[in-house]
Amino acid sequence: xxxxxxxxxxxxxxxxxxxxxxxxxxxxxxxxxxxxxxxxxxxxxxxxxxxxxxxxxxxxxxxxxxxxxxxxxxxxxxxxxxxxxxxxxxxxxxxxxxxxxxxxxxxxxxxxxxxxxxxxxxxxxxxxxxxxxxxxxxxxxxxxxxxxxxxxxxxxxxxxxxxxxxxxxxxxxxxxxxxxxxxxxxxxxxxxxxxxxxxxxxxxxxxxxxxxxxxxxxxxxxxxxxxxxxxxxxxxxxxxxxxxxxxxxxxxxxxxxxxxxxxxxxxxxxxxxxxxxxxxxxxxxxxxxxxxxxxxxxxxxxxxxxxxxxxxxxxxxxxxxxxxxxxxxxxxxxxxxxxxxxxxxxxxxxxxxxxxxxxxxxxxxxxxxxxxxxxxxxxxxxxxxxxxxxx
Length: 391
Description:
Elements lengths: L1 H27 L1 H8 L4 H6 L5 H8 L1 H11 L4 E5 L6 E6 L7 E6 L11 E6 L2 E7 L8 E2 L1 E7 L4 E4 L6 E2 L4 E6 L7 E7 L9 E6 L4 E7 L17 E3 L2 E7 L5 E6 L4 E5 L17 E6 L2 E7 L3 E10 L2 E11 L8 E7 L2 E6 L2 E6 L4 E6 L9 E5 L13
């Protein structure tokens, strides 16, 4: 009996020794170890923090966060909030698919239940959400609560309060660094005092953690029923773009990462286009494969224009016109783009248009399911919400 117990004990000791040696070999080859670990889903990576101190330190390492983000960028998906409510439910969806995977339900403690939260941007695995923030004691001033959220790590970061805005709901846009620079900036438009129709912009920089006023602006983002707080925008090629006016000739406001503003005109319909063609209220800015694009909805057709560089100058090029699958009473709530798919969400259905095959793919849903829908390209990351500097 003693001999059997001794043999069993020896086998168990050998097995533990082999396992320990194998784990040590893997951990010792840091490059291979990080390369393997960084390819896993963020949820799995986070669960491995308790394996050992080496694993914990490796996962918290800035180089690892960069490696994971680089790999994750090669397999982006959509992040969607199909319907706003007291709580915000976020889902991930693969391009061209209607299958949703629940990511997170957001209900921050420091928010009034009556203040609906909206998702307005997605970048580097982080999202930006905004909601009303009452300025106590004065009905003439408005403010917003602005949060940067990592849906995968469940971290929520509330930005400091901005300058109260006089009789004007503030509008925002988010710019973010490219390459190794993971800073982000939130541009916030507001009316500074008792002088209506005079607007300024202040910028929150994740590297400093404070707001900085950068002065007056040439124009402001336009109001849209489907765009809460005038904050519908896209970030393309180092610049934020907002629709500013649809009145002919129409304007787009842009600002670069350094805070330099410019205004460009909307596409001009001419030549063979019909008189009823032109800019409509159903106009949406998107980032199509790295180019600023505008999608213009007509009763029977959809036009897609691309802001392209020709030699040293930019100009609008008509990409294509496609037959609209939407009826007159089927209101388009949101348009976004990822890879070769352009996603359209209406009150009644979810549609993808494949720009390569020129085919529609439609998914039906309940009429009341979608309301003030938001949808953006998304990639998983481990980045902290107050990230700054270079990795």
